[in-house]
Amino acid sequence: MHSIKVYGSGCSNCVKLEALCNEVVRELSIDAKIEKVSDFQEIMKTGILSTPGLEINGKMISSGKLPVKSTLVHWIMNALAEAENK
């Protein structure tokens, strides 16, 4: 199972990113657990300075912006391919 973490305090972009991740995972039938991390201390541990933050399979992918759906699909598919090649 793949791991996707959305980091953010609950701002509108953080909520949108979480929903978008759920939508993409559902549409692509990916076996992934999506976790919302809103604890400030946990967010700080990642080094994220601006939310929302996105981590896929332990790799920080993005912070401080809300990607368009096609970009998110690309990021997720690349992360899955990397995981397959390990």
Structure at a glance:
By secondary structure, the chain is α+β, with helices and mostly antiparallel strands.
Question: What labels describe this entry?
Answer:
4-stranded mixed sheet, alpha+beta, 45% helix, Glutaredoxin, 86 residues, 3 helices, 4 strands
Note down, in words, how this protein is organized.
This protein is of the alpha+beta class and 86 residues long. It has one domain (2-84): Glutaredoxin (3-Layer(aba) Sandwich), CATH 3.40.30.10. The protein is 45% helix and 24% strand. The chain has helices at 12-27, 40-46, 69-84, and strands at 2-7, 32-37, 53-56, 59-63. A four-stranded mixed β-sheet has the order 2-1-3-4, sandwiched between helices. The radius of gyration is 12 Å and the shape is globular. The two termini are 14 Å apart. The relative contact order is 0.24. The mean pLDDT is 94.
Write the SSE topology.
Elements: E1 2-7, H1 12-27, E2 32-37, H2 40-46, E3 53-56, E4 59-63, H3 69-84
Parallel strand pairs: 1-2
Antiparallel strand pairs: 1-3, 3-4
